[in-house]
């Protein structure tokens, strides 16, 4: 791999300030063509335990620093990420597949959490509470929870780490991170930059391993862990929640979604199409807030489908490092085959392919960006998270009915509403049972606002002041006078 700074290509686990090897190694490959990128140390449950112990040992000293001291280190980390963006983006695109422009966007987005929480930690205010008893004085103080363990997915291998590690470290917690096996190199490069920025040994630890379940058991159940935070599928999240229960660990869960995208007859069509393209096809549809069900009012359905299909037909497909590419490969063959099966099942049940619909000769993990019409709510494509470049369109005629259909899912992460009517927009945004609703916008995630879901899409929030609160314990202090 060609990098300006070859020291950013790390292939070992990072425990207690040291890079450590393992007896076994795991291959990391480019999903676009299968090329071997690196072989990394296969971390064990023992490594995870030692990482937790190191984080516990480092906690007292890190939490005792002033907010300004912690902020100074975090700001150096932010600065180093920005300075090394070219190398970081190249690593990310090579191991994950998304186009370079998207990789750069993710890295700046990820880094913005570090900068923002470096500032926010100065405002960990407690309260003085009007007393119920003249002989007592009541206060609250906010203190870091302790050792925080994190498990993250492959679809945003940089930002899903910083969204957790930045507020945790800023609050005074120490962290152990297990990144996804598909994308460890982005994570390890971030860790190298954290070390260069001056995060003391033990404050940040990273363990990558092929036995995710064994590592997960340590990170959810070790007695020295105070809080566990996970981003990934709902199925795995449920297993990890159950594991957390045995030790009553605090936890946050950022899980899967099934986002409805509703286009009303009073929508601005250009806005609706470009928002749909942005939410549906970014990262080849492999985002948790990706549009999963498109409901279009029957009076504008044909116009919307024609414009969306025209935009999709023009998308350049190829290796994420190539100029102008919009759609890269899916993460692995299994993912591409699942998407192909969803198309086939839908077509067999009466849906129609407007554009795309098949694998591509570009490589075995490539699937064409696809628009389907005639989809119905009972099809698997409408009930499960697609996680691929398929845009399934349905018709609706009535506002109440489309709200009911949009809410008819166990998921509650993101939803989208396209309407120029301020009255309707307010009504529908309030009625949608989701953690986040975007109106006349396709990309909405930002450091300064709380990101997270309701129902089976998760527990807790990342970003904004809410994201910081996840890493504090509020202590009530009562003083007799
Ligand atoms: P996944 O659940 O398969 O894996 C996520 C992480 O969990 C990986 O690090 C994996 O190694 C680990 N893991 C898997 N099985 C485990 C086990 N038994 N014990 C411990 N760890 C285990 O998810 P994925 O395929 O990597 O990511 C895609 C999913 O993530 C989608 O469902 C997507 O919606 C979700 N996601 C959610 C958000 C959000 O903010 N809500 C953001 C990004 C992705």
What topology emerges from the helices and strands here?
Elements: E1 13-15, E2 18-20, E3 25-29, E4 36-41, H1 45-64, H2 67-83, H3 85-96, H4 100-120, E5 127-129, E6 136-144, E7 147-151, H5 159-171, E8 174-178, H6 184-197, E9 204-206, H7 212-221, E10 225-231, H8 234-245, E11 250-254, E12 259-263, H9 269-281, E13 291-297, H10 301-313, H11 333-348, E14 352-355, E15 370-373, H12 380-383, E16 390-396, H13 399-407, E17 411-412, E18 414-418, H14 422-431, E19 436-439, E20 454-455, E21 458-459, H15 464-469, E22 472-480
Parallel strand pairs: 7-8, 7-10, 8-9, 10-11, 12-13, 12-18, 13-16, 15-16, 18-19
Antiparallel strand pairs: 1-2, 3-4, 5-6, 6-22, 11-21, 14-15, 17-20
Helix pairs in contact: 1-7, 2-4, 2-5, 2-6, 3-4, 3-6, 4-5, 7-8, 9-10
The chain binds nicotinamide-adenine-dinucleotide.
Short description:
By secondary structure, this protein is α/β, with parallel strands linked by helices. The protein has 15 helices and 22 strands.
């Amino acid at each position: 791999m060609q990098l300006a700074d070859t020291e950013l290509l790390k292939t070992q686990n990072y425990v207690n300030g040291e890079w450590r090897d393992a007896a076994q190694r795991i291959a990391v490959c480019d999903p676009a063509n299968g090329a071997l990128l690196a072989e990394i140390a296969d971390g064990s449950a023992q490594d995870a335990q030692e990482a937790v112990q190191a984080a516990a040992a480092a906690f007292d000293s890190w939490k005792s620093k002033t907010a300004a001291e912690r902020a100074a280190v975090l700001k150096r980390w932010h600065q180093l990420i920005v300075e090394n963006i070219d190398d970081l983006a190249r690593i990310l695109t090579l191991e994950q597949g998304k186009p370079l422009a998207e990789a750069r966007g993710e890295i700046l987005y990820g880094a913005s959490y570090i900068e923002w929480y470096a500032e926010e930690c100065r405002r960990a205010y407690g309260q003085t509470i009007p007393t119920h008893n003249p002989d007592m004085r009541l206060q609250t103080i906010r203190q870091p929870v302790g050792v925080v363990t994190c498990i993250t997915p492959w679809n945003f291998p940089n930002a899903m780490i910083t969204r957790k590690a930045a507020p945790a470290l800023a609050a005074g917690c120490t962290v152990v991170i297990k990144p996804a096996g598909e994308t460890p190199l982005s994570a390890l490069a971030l860790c190298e930059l954290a070390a260069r920025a001056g995060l003391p040994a033990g404050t940040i630890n990273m363990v990558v391993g092929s036995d995710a379940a064994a590592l997960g058991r340590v990170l959810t159940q070790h007695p020295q862990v105070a809080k566990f935070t996970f981003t990934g599928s709902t199925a795995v999240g449920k297993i990890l929640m159950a594991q957390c229960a045995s030790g009553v660990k605090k936890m946050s869960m950022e899980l899967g979604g099934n986002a409805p995208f509703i286009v009303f007859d009073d929508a601005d069509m250009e806005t609706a199409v470009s928002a749909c393209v942005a939410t549906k096809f970014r990262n080849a549809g492999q985002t948790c807030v990706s549009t999963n069900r498109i409901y279009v009012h029957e009076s504008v359905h044909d116009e919307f489908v024609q414009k969306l299909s025209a935009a999709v037909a023009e998308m350049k497909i190829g290796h994420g490092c190539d100029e102008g590419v919009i759609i890269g490969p899916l993460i692995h063959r299994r993912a591409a085959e699942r998407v192909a099966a969803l198309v086939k099942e839908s077509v067999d049940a009466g849906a129609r392919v407007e554009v795309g619909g098949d694998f591509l000769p570009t490589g075995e993990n490539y699937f064409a960006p696809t628009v389907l019409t005639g989809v119905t709510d009972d099809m698997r494509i409408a009930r499960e998270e697609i996680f691929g470049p398929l845009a399934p369109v349905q018709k609706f005629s009535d506002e109440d009915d489309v709200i009911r259909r949009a809410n008819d899912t166990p998921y509650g992460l993101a939803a989208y509403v396209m309407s120029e009517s301020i009255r309707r927009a307010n009504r529908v945004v309030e009625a949608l049972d989701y953690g986040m609703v975007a109106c006349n916008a396709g990309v909405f995630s930002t450091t300064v606002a709380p990101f997270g879901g309701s129902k089976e899409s998760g527990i807790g929030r990342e970003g904004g002041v809410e994201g910081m609160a996840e890493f504090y314990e509020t202590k009530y202090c009562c003083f007799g006078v």
